[in-house]
């Protein structure tokens, strides 16, 4: 007679079997990294929508081979990973499972290809040759580049394009490529990238190295602001340029400004030139500098309170391919502005200052910020002091403008006067850029996507920009390149862009006159 096995015993057997099976599955999967848990990161989603090669866009590059080679004595069952089924995440990977030397070697090996791809794009879009404006310079004498540098589609002229409606341009794919959003030098990776002249001067003065081992800055120096830029103070306009021709750093700020600023402002400036940990420049192995770094200072991008053209990706958009390249804006004239950030619409300089170090330094990811050493500024003193100094940054002198921000006809050329009339008339520039500072302190959506179809460009999805802050035009000749992502290299490009986007149908002479007026601001 067979003995009956109690139901409770069967339940225990089933439970034990299930636990064993779960353990096997876990053992298999524990050696597998998904796209958002790689030992390195390319942003938010390591799956490249354009199938472009990147040093870390495959599982073979996450250190699995190295890990498995150590486990040959105890091989694990093969696991096939389908990246297409993986969910993207708003968060960056936290745990680095690969040693730093391996990561750096891989990026260094891919750097020439990465930069060649970006330079090919720039040469396809623009005429990058040296054509200086005769008799017009930036405030400290650097020549200004002239002419429309955006290349036209084959067989087209600017007049032909201006006569077409947006739908026809879009359907026939005739929107000039130089008018499309500009991608980061390596868009899938992103992060702060500095011009070579900034890197050299900071290394000379402080011994701090802002070089990245994975990428270099891409735009030629001739299309960037003069360096070092002059500094004008609203409180001491009698002094003119107070920089004495030097780049202000933590090595010379006290010598240059002691006796000119009050103690609060001087302390604010000290904080602005003090480096703090940042996504690519920090003391951990998750960095893009060869040696551990103390970080980045506010004035590494906003050099001398102006801009050196350094680039980054905005931190407030996901996924990675939709993030916008950022051309560092000048801090001149922040005292008359009421919105801060190209799209974030922060309401005060204090908000902007605090946000930059809490979020923008770390791609908008507070988890990574905590890991790498976020600098939490104290609002009542540090943030306030930094903001107070920034609000002293004045626009450069504009000797042809009167107290209302308009041209003095006795000091201006006929072309400049005609340009002003067009600016406030047919060209409708003043609807967003009214005198005297030439900003309406709000945001506008140009809807440039009316003219082109969404498309992948070097790992970036060129699509709708959305509402963008109206930046002041005072001192605009000192701040190339133009538009929020730096896609327009000259003022001539800028006028041509808005002529098309606003469908103004300006003549060639009218466009030249507007450029002449803009250079007086």
Descriptive report:
The chain is mainly α. Helix content is 30%, strand content 5%. The protein has helices spanning 7-29, 64-69, 100-125, 158-163, 166-171, 196-206, 253-257, 263-272, 298-301, 349-358, 366-372, 379-390, 414-423, 491-501, 508-518; strands spanning 132-137, 143-145, 311-313, 325-327, 443-444, 455-457, 460-462, 468-469. It has a two-stranded antiparallel sheet with strand order 1-2. Helix 13 (414-423) crosses helix 15 (508-518). It is globular, with a radius of gyration of 27 Å. Residues 20-82 have low confidence and may be disordered.
The helix/strand series, from N terminus to C terminus, equals HHHEEHHHHHHEEHHHHEEEEHH
What would you call the shape?
globular
Structural Rg: 27 Å
Number of helical segments with 4 or more residues: 15
Query: How does the helix and strand content classify structurally?
Result: mainly alpha
List the helices and strands and how they pair.
Layout: H1 7-29, H2 64-69, H3 100-125, E1 132-137, E2 143-145, H4 158-163, H5 166-171, H6 196-206, H7 253-257, H8 263-272, H9 298-301, E3 311-313, E4 325-327, H10 349-358, H11 366-372, H12 379-390, H13 414-423, E5 443-444, E6 455-457, E7 460-462, E8 468-469, H14 491-501, H15 508-518
Antiparallel strand pairs: 1-2, 3-4, 5-8, 6-7
């Amino acid at each position: 007679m067979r003995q009956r096995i109690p139901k409770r015993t069967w339940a225990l057997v089933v439970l034990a079997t299930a636990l064993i099976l779960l353990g096997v599955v876990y053992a298999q999967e524990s050696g597998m990294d998904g796209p958002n848990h790689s030992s390195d990161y390319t942003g938010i989603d390591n799956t490249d929508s354009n199938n472009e090669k990147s040093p870390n866009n495959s599982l073979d590059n996450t250190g699995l081979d190295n890990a498995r080679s150590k486990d040959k004595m105890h091989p694990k069952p093969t696991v096939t990973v389908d990246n297409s089924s993986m969910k993207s995440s708003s968060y960056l990977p936290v745990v680095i499972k690969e040693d730093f030397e391996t990561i750096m070697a891989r990026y260094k090996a891919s750097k020439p290809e990465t930069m060649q791809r970006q330079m090919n794009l720039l040469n396809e879009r623009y005429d990058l040759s040296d054509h200086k404006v005769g008799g017009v310079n930036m405030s400290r004498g650097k020549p200004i580049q002239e002419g429309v540098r955006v290349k036209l589609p084959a067989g087209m002229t600017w007049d032909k394009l201006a006569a077409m409606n947006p739908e026809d341009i879009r359907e026939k794919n005739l929107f000039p490529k130089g008018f499309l959003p500009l991608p980061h030098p390596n868009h899938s990776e992103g992060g702060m990238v500095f011009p070579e002249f900034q890197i050299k001067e900071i290394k000379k003065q402080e011994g701090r190295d802002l070089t990245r081992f994975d990428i270099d800055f891409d735009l030629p120096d001739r299309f960037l602001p003069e360096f070092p830029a002059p500094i004008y103070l609203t409180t001491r306009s009698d002094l003119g340029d107070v920089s004495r021709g030097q780049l202000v750093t933590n090595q010379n700020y006290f010598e240059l400004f002691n006796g000119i600023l009050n103690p609060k402002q001087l302390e604010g400036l000290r904080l602005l030139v003090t480096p703090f940990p940042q996504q690519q420049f920090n003391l951990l192995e998750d960095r893009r500098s060869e040696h551990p770094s103390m970080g980045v200072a506010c004035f590494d991008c906003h050099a001398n309170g102006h801009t050196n053209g350094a680039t980054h990706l905005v931190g407030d958009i996901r996924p990675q391919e939709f993030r916008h390249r950022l051309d560092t804006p000048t801090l001149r004239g922040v005292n008359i502005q009421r919105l801060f950030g190209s799209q974030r619409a922060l309401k005060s300089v204090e908000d902007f200052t605090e946000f930059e170090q809490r979020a923008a330094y770390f791609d908008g990811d507070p988890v990574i910020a905590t890991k790498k050493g976020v600098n939490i500024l104290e609002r009542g003193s540090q943030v306030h002091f930094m903001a107070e100094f920034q609000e002293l940054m004045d626009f450069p002198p504009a000797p042809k403008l009167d107290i209302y921000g308009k041209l003095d006809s006795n000091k201006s050329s006929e072309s400049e006067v005609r340009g002003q009339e067009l600016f406030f008339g047919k060209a409708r520039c003043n609807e967003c850029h009214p005198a005297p500072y030439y900003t309406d302190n709000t945001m506008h959506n140009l809807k440039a996507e009316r003219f082109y179809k969404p498309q992948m460009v070097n790992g970036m999805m060129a699509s709708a920009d959305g509402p963008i802050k109206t930046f002041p035009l005072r001192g605009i000749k000192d701040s190339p390149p133009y538009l929020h992502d730096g896609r327009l290299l000259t003022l001539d490009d800028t006028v041509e862009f808005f002529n098309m986007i606003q469908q103004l149908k300006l003549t060639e002479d009218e466009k030249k006159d507007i450029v002449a007026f803009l250079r007086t601001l």
